[in-house]
Each structure stands twice: as C-alpha cells, then as structure tokens.
Amino acid sequence: MPGLHSLAPAKVTWYARRLRSMGPREVADRALTVGATAARRVTGDHEPDDATLLGRADPDWAALLGDFRAGTARPVLLDRASAAAVAAAHPEAVKELLAAADRVLEHRFTFFAHPEARYDGPVDWSYDPLADVRWPALPSHAINHRAGHGEPKWIWELNRLQHLPWLAQAWLLTGDERYGTEALDQLEAWIAANPPGRGIAWRGAFEIGVRAISVLVALQGLADHPALTPERYRRAVRMLAAGARRCWRDRSKHSSANNHLVGELAGLATVAILLPELASAARWERDAVDALAVEARRQILPDGVGAEQAVGYQVFTAELLAVVALLRRLDPGHAPTAADGTLLAAIGRSAGHLADLVGTGDPTPRTGDDDEGFALRLDPAPTREVRPHLALAAALTGLPAARRAGTSDLTSAWIAARLGTKDTTGAWEPGSAHAADGGLAILRSGRRRVLVDVGPLGYLSIAAHGHADALAVGVAVDGHDLVGDPGTGSYFAHPDWRTAHRSTRAHATVAVDDADQSVMGGPFLWTEHAGVRVRDVDLAAGRVDAEHDGYRRLEVPVVHRRVVDAPPDDDVVLVVDVLSPVGEGGEPVPPVRTTWPLHPDLALDETVDGTVVARRDGEPVLRIVTSASAPASGWRLRGGDPGAGELGWWSERLEQRRPCWFVGAQVAATRAEPVIVATLLVTGAAADRPAPSPIVDPGRDGAVRVHWTGSTGPRATVVGSR
After folding, report:
1. What is the number of other CB atoms lying within 10 angstroms of the CB of residue 465?
2. Which element (helix H / strand E) includes 24?
3. Which CA distances in Å does 722 have to 308, 517, 559?
4. Can you say how many angstroms the Cα of residue 302 is from the centroid of all Cα atoms in its chain?
5. Averaged over 695-712, what is the pLDDT?
6. Would you state the pLDDT for residue 428?
7. What pLDDT shows up at residue 345?
C-alpha cells in the first residue's frame, strides 16, 4: 500500500475500511507483498534470457515457430478447416465479424456504451482519446488507477487486445493478408510500447491473464501468415512468459480472490498449454489447473449460482473455466484428470442454473454487477449474453437444457467445429426452481417468471460485485421485464451512478429510513453485510418466505420479513412485507419505503386510490395495488425529474442508462408494532381490470393475515408469527 501520509483523507478512510475487511493472515500477506514490490523498484522486473525461458541454450526460434504453426504437442482452436465449417454454418455472423475487423483496420474501437474512439495514426496504447488522457509510463505498481487520470476500464479494455482474434478469424475466413498484417503489426507495436511491468496495461495480474488468452488464440489463427516471423514469435513468447510469471506471483488472494483469480489462473494455464516449449510450462499448467479446480468449486456453488451474486460475472467466470477445459480437451497429448472433470462439472452446473433462469424466452436478470467482460472474444457482439454462453456450455458439456436455451454464435460455432459436436436439441422445459446455496427462487406460471432473491450480498468479505438487494423481486411476462433490477450503471466514470445502482432504494425490495441494507465502504467494498434467513420455499404453491437482518444496526433495530405468494394458477402475485422492531425500546419503526423499478419501456397511468397501472405500447401489462397497517402514501419518480437524484434509471450497458419509473409506497408508523405492507402485482389480462385492495389483518396471535383477490377469486395468505 502507498504511504498513508501521501493520501487524501478519503483514501485514508478507504484503506482503514479495507483493512477491517481482512483477516490477520491477509494483512500479513499483503505486508510481504508491499515489501517485495518495493524491492523490485530497486532490482527491476527483468525478463529471463532465452536459455532460462526455454531450458536450453541457443534455441532455434525458426524451428519453434514451425512447431507452433504445425500445432505440434499443443491444442489448436482457430484453424483453416474449422474456419470453412464456421463460415458455411454462420454466414450472417461472419459478415458481422468482417465488419468488426474492418473497423479495427481503421483503428476504431468501441467499449461499453462509450462512443466510438478512433486513432488517426498508430494505436497509442496509453492514450484514451475519449477522455483526452494519457496514462503515465511508470512502473505498473506505481500507477493508481483510481487517481482520476481517466477511465481505467476503457484503457484496460483496449489493452486486453480482444480485437486481435477478430482479425485472425478474418484472415482465416477470407485469406486477405491485410487482416493478419494489421494484427501482427499491432501486437508488435503493443510489445514495444508496453515492456513487462510498465504502464497501465500491466496494472494487475488479472488484465495480464485475460490478455494472454486473446493474444495466444489470435497467434494460432495467424500461425501461417507470412508476417509472423521467428523474431516476432520470439518477442511474443517472451512477453507472454513474463505475463505468466506475473499471473502466478501476483495472483489475487484472500478477500480479493474472486473472478480476478480465475482470470489470472486461466491466463497462466493458457500460456502453459499453448506454449509447451517453455521450461516452466508443465509446472505452470499443473499449478494453474489445480488452483482453478479449487476455484471452480468455490465460485460456482453446488446449485450452479455464481458466488459473486452477479449474473454477468458468473458467465465470465464459467467461460474462463471453459477456455482451459476446452484447450485441455483438444490437447492431443493430454489424458483427462480429476481436475478436468471438476472444471466441466462447474461449467455444467452453472449452465443448468442459467438455463433455469432464462428458460426458453425469459429476459436475463441484471442482478449484481456486470462489466461486460469476455474470456474469449470471437464473436463481435458488444456484450456477452447468457444465451450465447449457454450454447458454448452445451458444446462442451452436451447439457440438453443449455442447448435448448442457448443461441449459437461464432464462439460456440468454433468450439463445436473443433470438438465435432452436433447441434441436437434434448427434451427440456423450464419450470420453477430453488437454488438454495446461491439463494434464488424462480417461480414460473405459463409465460410469467417471478424471481425472489434470498441470497447473500456477495462473495468473500468485500462482496465487491454484490448489490444491496436482499429479498428483491423480479417479474417478467411474455419475455419482457415488468419489475426488475436496474443494472450496474457505472464503475469509474460516474461515481454517483455507481452508488445509486448498488443501493437498496434502486431495487425491488424495502428500505427502512431510506438506508441501505448493507453498508458501502467504497465502490467495490461492503463493510457490513445483510444476512438472509430462508424460512420456507414451496415451489408447487409458488410461495417464498424469508427475512434479513440488515436493519438491526439502526437506532431502532428492525427485521425485514417478506413473503411472496405467486400461485401458479393465478395472474396476481402478492408480496407481504413485515417490518418488526427488535427489542423493547418502545419506538415506532422508522419510515418504510417499498420500491418497484419498472422497465423503461413502460408508461404509467395517473395514480388512482393507491393503484399504479403500467402500459407497454398502450396496453396495460401491470397493475400495482398497495395496502398497509399504518398510514401510507404512494410515491413515484423518474430519472431526470426534479428531486429524483440518481434514482429512476435503468442501465442495460455499462456507462449507459435510460430513465424509468420507480414506484412504491411510503409508510409512517405511529406505534411500536410491526409495519405490514401488502402489494398486489397484477399481470396478464387481469391488469386491465380494477383490483380490490388487499386487506391487512395484523392479528392478535402474532400472525399476519392478508385477504386478497386473485384472478381466480378470493385468497388468503398467512404470515406466521416470529
């Protein structure tokens, strides 16, 4: 860590919070790392000579390149035979790929939702033309990417070199030498401009690992291009080997060992598998794959949910595992091991859960963070979506649910071509499901999907990519979100967006005193986590009952319990929230606010008698009716309205958002007793008809009874006493 005397007070506070999230072993480990980094400032971080690199004096680089071109003793992903099969099966996708490659020829790049950037001359790998910022040419450990130089995500994305596989594919598919020449020229220029350990591109082993995958896959596709000379191959191998050492030496540990560790290990394994001539290759592969097997068990939970509680990162993590599993499977000299089985099992169980989640037509939930990361970017799509990922997983595992729910793209097409897998569809229909380890209930009825988040905040002590969304509810009908998660917003470019999109008030749950359920300690740090207790999940009845303790820290401690009643034979969903004071303080529960974030395509009618009607294209698709045990009033806001602040926005891409409606009820308790809020979410044809308000009966026996009318008639829901 830098000396605290040189930091602004806000940074001192952040470091203090970060230290509190570490255990004693992590603090000691990080102190040793700081000492080793300081030593390298004196001694430097030099590349080894060729003899050390390859374990032999005077290596013949022409012969080594010949082995690489022939695919000797290593797997091959991009080759000419497979290119022909891919082109024949996916002509439209190939057209899109060639258009993307042509943009790269013109040095035009688009990342996230930022506008396109163009370099009029050679690509300047340290310069962000959108922000007009040049990152300093310092030792990478001396660069503070949070110091406001610019948008680090943008410059990192450029330096991942994930456009090089596009150029390599374009060369294989067309034979046009311009694509291969451009790719090799850019790689040569990148190596010259970014010596190991210097510049923003080397800031973090994670970036090094992800970049290694792109570079090596591209080099394989360019293996027989005339511009790939032995000297160029030598420089690339030396750079990749230097990065591999960093991936292991500087790998993420302890509370930081999330998807970053998987990326570092996957990059190390890829270098080892595709460059077996390296002296350390066998050891690197063994260590990386063994460690990946451990992370596969940790980061993909037994029920298939990603431990980070973020759908985007689950896909990213599973695909990093898939890159290594695929290369090992294609390696002609490899005998399958238990670790291979562990990787494939993790990919399979993740795909099984994701297929349950999206079914054959449901939208992808935007739970937790999503930085649009690609493990292997062969298709030019701007984001990595769940359905193409499922097609990849199906090609690797053969899982029928993944094949049925997946949508083939160039990435899965290359994998299927190399593995010789057939695009056959197995029998599978989505239904309700409960992922008990990850904490998600999926309640299905016809074309309606109701999600209830009963999981933890996130992974490890910092829960970096989780949101304060305990007990949040999502509703989708006919393949469209009605109530959902508004997404990520921003990472670095807009700090206010970052804070708002992680907050409780931005999610379909309840805020007490407008506080967050969990406590933010920084943009990727939570210092206090709400804990969820699941009381009951009954999939047949469509009922979920759970509570969280995040508001016990308030001056008047409160427990939030939520019961969701979504009968499979009814178009109406009842949500009952019970906010109970803890202890004998005698104070009323602080103000309570329910929030229902509506998809931005929905327009609202005027509120009448506490009822909200949302329309899509003029047709009513959702009616929200609320009652409470204490005085209540409806509220609504839309992004950009006066007083809305940073709420009322829906983010479908990182660094982009659209205004949407947030609606709900505010309840002010006057007595020291539980506050009960009952909300009807009326969908389908019933949304076009007035719905009676639910009747809340607190009950003297401690049980809460709610009488309500569904589309099939009167119903009653009982929330048992605590």
Report:
1. 24
2. helix 24-43
3. 30, 20, 10
4. 19
5. 90
6. 78
7. 98
**Rounded Cα gap, residues 267 and 376, in angstroms:** 11
- Nearest CA among 582, 580, 595, 583 for reference residue 669: 580
Amino acid 99: pLDDT: 98
- Let me know: does 490 contact 654? Beta carbons within 8 Å: yes
pLDDT tens digits for range 616-637: 999 999 999 999 999 999 999 9
pLDDT at 371 over 90: yes
pTM beyond cutoff 0.90: yes
Cα 142 to Cα 626: distance, rounded to the nearest angstrom:
55
Residue 368 has phi, psi (to 5 degrees) of: 65, -165
Token couple for 171? 């060369």
The partner residues of 664 in beta bridges, in order of sequence, read: 635
Instruction: Answer whether 214's CB lies under 8 Å from 160's CB.
Output: yes
Picking from 601, 597, 561, 617, the residue whose alpha carbon sits closest to that of residue 681 is: 597
Length of the chain: 722
The model's confidence at residue 1, banded by pLDDT at 50, 70 and 90, is very low
Which of helix, strand or coil describes residue 711?
coil
| Alpha-carbon 613 to chain mean position | 32
Give all strands of the β-sheet with 532-538 in edge-to-edge order: 532-538, 543-548, 558-565, 572-581, 675-683, 619-628, 611-616, 603-604
Whole-angstrom distance, CA of residue 238 vs CA of residue 227:
18
Query: pLDDT-based confidence at 15, cuts 50/70/90?
Result: low
Within 257-383, residue ranges assigned H as helices are 259-274, 281-299, 311-330, 338-358
Residue type, 618: G
Looking at the chain, the number of H-run helices and the number of E-run strands are 19, 29
The closest alpha carbon to 565, from 452, 454, 689, 674, belongs to: 452
What the block records as the tokens of 576 is 């009952």
Q: In the structure encoding, which two tokens stand for residue 145, read together? A: 């990417």
Strand partners for 576: 563, 678
3-class DSSP state for residue 411?
A: helix
Tens digit of each residue's pLDDT (9 = 90 or more) over 285-315: 999 999 999 999 999 999 999 999 999 999 9
Query: Concatenated DSSP letters for 442-485?
Result: EEEETTEEEEEE-S-S-STTT-TT--S-TT-EEEEETTEEEE--
Give the range among 117-126, 156-165, 550-559, 602-611 with minimum mean pLDDT: 602-611
Total Cβ atoms within 10 A of residue 148: 8
Give the pLDDT score at 361.
93
Tell me the C-alpha distance between 673 and 79, whole Å.
70
- Cα–Cα distance between 310 and 687 in angstroms, integer? 31
Evaluate if residue 421 carries a pLDDT over 90: no
Q: What is the DSSP string of 39-63?
A: HHHHH--PPPPHHHHHTSSS--HHH
DSSP-derived 3-state class of residue 592: strand
Asked if residues 278 and 53 have their Cβ atoms less than 8 Å apart, the reply is: yes
Question: The tokens of 296 are what?
Answer: 């596969």
**Ramachandran quadrant class, 596 (left: phi over 0; alpha: psi -120 to 50; beta: rest):** beta
The DSSP symbol for 317 reads: H
**Average pLDDT score over the chain:** 93
The predicted model gives 235-261 an average pLDDT of: 97
- Token pair in block for residue 406: 């997946």
The type of residue at 705 is: R
Tokens of 546: 């759970």
